[in-house]
Amino acid sequence: MEHGQAGGVRAGEAHATETRGERTRAERATEGLTVALASALSFGLLAGPVAVFGVTARHLVTDTGTTAFSRFVVPVVFLALVALPLVLARAVFRSGRRKGRERLTAAAPAALTLLAGSVVPFAVLFLFLVYAD
User: Fold this and answer.
1) Which of 117, 114, 123, 130 has its CA nearest to residue 39?
2) The model scores a pTM over 0.90
3) CB-based contacts of 38: which residues, under 8 Å, 6+ apart?
Protein backbone atom coordinates (compact mmCIF):
# COMPACT_ATOMS: atom_id res chain seq x y z
CA MET A 1 0.00 0.00 0.00
CA GLU A 2 1.33 3.43 -0.93
CA HIS A 3 1.74 6.16 1.65
CA GLY A 4 -1.17 8.52 2.11
CA GLN A 5 -3.88 6.39 0.48
CA ALA A 6 -6.51 4.60 2.51
CA GLY A 7 -7.67 1.11 1.60
CA GLY A 8 -4.86 0.38 -0.85
CA VAL A 9 -6.65 1.82 -3.89
CA ARG A 10 -4.66 4.14 -6.08
CA ALA A 11 -6.09 7.52 -6.98
CA GLY A 12 -7.01 6.69 -10.61
CA GLU A 13 -8.32 3.17 -9.95
CA ALA A 14 -11.35 4.16 -7.87
CA HIS A 15 -12.95 6.03 -10.78
CA ALA A 16 -12.02 3.31 -13.30
CA THR A 17 -13.75 0.57 -11.33
CA GLU A 18 -16.93 2.65 -10.98
CA THR A 19 -17.32 3.25 -14.72
CA ARG A 20 -16.06 -0.14 -15.92
CA GLY A 21 -19.46 -1.82 -15.38
CA GLU A 22 -21.44 1.01 -16.96
CA ARG A 23 -21.85 1.34 -20.70
CA THR A 24 -22.10 4.54 -22.66
CA ARG A 25 -25.23 5.73 -24.38
CA ALA A 26 -23.61 5.10 -27.78
CA GLU A 27 -22.92 1.45 -26.91
CA ARG A 28 -26.50 0.92 -25.79
CA ALA A 29 -27.82 2.67 -28.90
CA THR A 30 -25.62 0.54 -31.15
CA GLU A 31 -26.83 -2.66 -29.49
CA GLY A 32 -30.44 -1.50 -29.72
CA LEU A 33 -30.08 -0.65 -33.39
CA THR A 34 -28.44 -4.01 -34.06
CA VAL A 35 -31.26 -5.85 -32.31
CA ALA A 36 -33.97 -3.87 -34.11
CA LEU A 37 -32.48 -4.24 -37.60
CA ALA A 38 -31.56 -7.91 -37.22
CA SER A 39 -35.02 -8.73 -35.84
CA ALA A 40 -36.85 -6.85 -38.59
CA LEU A 41 -34.75 -8.40 -41.33
CA SER A 42 -35.08 -11.91 -39.91
CA PHE A 43 -38.85 -11.66 -39.57
CA GLY A 44 -38.99 -10.32 -43.12
CA LEU A 45 -36.98 -13.32 -44.28
CA LEU A 46 -39.29 -15.65 -42.36
CA ALA A 47 -42.49 -14.11 -43.75
CA GLY A 48 -42.06 -15.63 -47.21
CA PRO A 49 -41.42 -19.21 -46.07
CA VAL A 50 -44.22 -18.99 -43.51
CA ALA A 51 -46.73 -17.96 -46.19
CA VAL A 52 -45.59 -20.50 -48.78
CA PHE A 53 -45.17 -23.37 -46.32
CA GLY A 54 -48.54 -22.58 -44.75
CA VAL A 55 -50.37 -22.65 -48.08
CA THR A 56 -48.53 -25.81 -49.16
CA ALA A 57 -49.31 -27.56 -45.89
CA ARG A 58 -52.96 -26.55 -46.14
CA HIS A 59 -53.19 -27.97 -49.67
CA LEU A 60 -51.50 -31.20 -48.60
CA VAL A 61 -53.82 -31.66 -45.64
CA THR A 62 -57.02 -30.94 -47.59
CA ASP A 63 -56.05 -32.69 -50.84
CA THR A 64 -57.90 -35.96 -51.44
CA GLY A 65 -54.95 -37.84 -52.99
CA THR A 66 -52.57 -37.30 -50.06
CA THR A 67 -51.66 -40.11 -47.67
CA ALA A 68 -52.30 -39.78 -43.95
CA PHE A 69 -48.56 -39.93 -43.27
CA SER A 70 -47.73 -36.97 -45.49
CA ARG A 71 -50.72 -35.04 -44.15
CA PHE A 72 -49.03 -35.18 -40.75
CA VAL A 73 -45.31 -35.13 -41.57
CA VAL A 74 -45.12 -32.30 -44.11
CA PRO A 75 -46.75 -29.63 -41.90
CA VAL A 76 -44.58 -30.73 -38.95
CA VAL A 77 -41.40 -30.43 -41.04
CA PHE A 78 -42.46 -27.00 -42.33
CA LEU A 79 -43.28 -25.85 -38.80
CA ALA A 80 -39.91 -27.10 -37.55
CA LEU A 81 -38.09 -25.21 -40.31
CA VAL A 82 -39.83 -21.97 -39.42
CA ALA A 83 -39.64 -22.41 -35.63
CA LEU A 84 -35.97 -23.44 -35.53
CA PRO A 85 -34.54 -19.89 -35.72
CA LEU A 86 -36.86 -18.72 -32.94
CA VAL A 87 -35.87 -21.61 -30.68
CA LEU A 88 -32.16 -21.02 -31.32
CA ALA A 89 -32.46 -17.28 -30.63
CA ARG A 90 -34.32 -17.96 -27.38
CA ALA A 91 -31.58 -20.35 -26.25
CA VAL A 92 -28.87 -17.77 -26.99
CA PHE A 93 -30.82 -15.05 -25.16
CA ARG A 94 -31.39 -17.22 -22.08
CA SER A 95 -27.72 -18.20 -22.05
CA GLY A 96 -26.73 -14.54 -22.01
CA ARG A 97 -29.18 -13.78 -19.22
CA ARG A 98 -27.84 -16.68 -17.13
CA LYS A 99 -24.37 -15.19 -17.44
CA GLY A 100 -25.72 -12.04 -15.79
CA ARG A 101 -25.81 -9.78 -18.83
CA GLU A 102 -28.35 -7.02 -19.24
CA ARG A 103 -31.38 -7.68 -21.44
CA LEU A 104 -30.13 -5.57 -24.33
CA THR A 105 -26.62 -7.03 -24.17
CA ALA A 106 -28.07 -10.55 -24.21
CA ALA A 107 -30.50 -9.65 -27.00
CA ALA A 108 -27.83 -8.58 -29.51
CA PRO A 109 -26.34 -12.07 -30.07
CA ALA A 110 -29.83 -13.57 -29.94
CA ALA A 111 -31.06 -11.24 -32.70
CA LEU A 112 -28.05 -12.05 -34.85
CA THR A 113 -28.69 -15.77 -34.26
CA LEU A 114 -32.29 -15.23 -35.33
CA LEU A 115 -31.11 -13.49 -38.49
CA ALA A 116 -28.64 -16.26 -39.31
CA GLY A 117 -31.20 -18.97 -38.55
CA SER A 118 -33.90 -17.37 -40.68
CA VAL A 119 -31.72 -17.74 -43.75
CA VAL A 120 -32.22 -21.54 -43.60
CA PRO A 121 -36.01 -21.57 -44.26
CA PHE A 122 -35.52 -18.86 -46.88
CA ALA A 123 -32.89 -21.02 -48.62
CA VAL A 124 -35.19 -24.05 -48.45
CA LEU A 125 -37.99 -22.00 -50.01
CA PHE A 126 -35.62 -20.83 -52.73
CA LEU A 127 -34.59 -24.43 -53.47
CA PHE A 128 -38.24 -25.46 -53.62
CA LEU A 129 -38.98 -22.72 -56.14
CA VAL A 130 -35.91 -23.44 -58.27
CA TYR A 131 -36.24 -27.23 -58.40
CA ALA A 132 -40.03 -27.60 -58.31
CA ASP A 133 -41.57 -29.35 -61.28
Assistant:
1) 114
2) no
3) 111, 112, 114, 115
SS3 per residue for 18-60: HHHCCCCHHHHHHHHHHHHHHHHHHHHHHHHHHHHHHHHHHHH
Q: How many residues does the chain have?
A: 133
Per-residue confidence in pLDDT tens, the chain, 133 aa: 445 545 555 555 444 444 456 778 888 888 888 888 888 888 888 888 888 878 877 887 787 777 878 778 877 888 888 888 888 888 998 998 888 888 888 888 888 888 888 888 888 888 877 887 6
Task: List CB contacts of 34: < 8 A, sequence separation 6 or more.
Answer: 108, 111, 112
DSSP state of 132: -
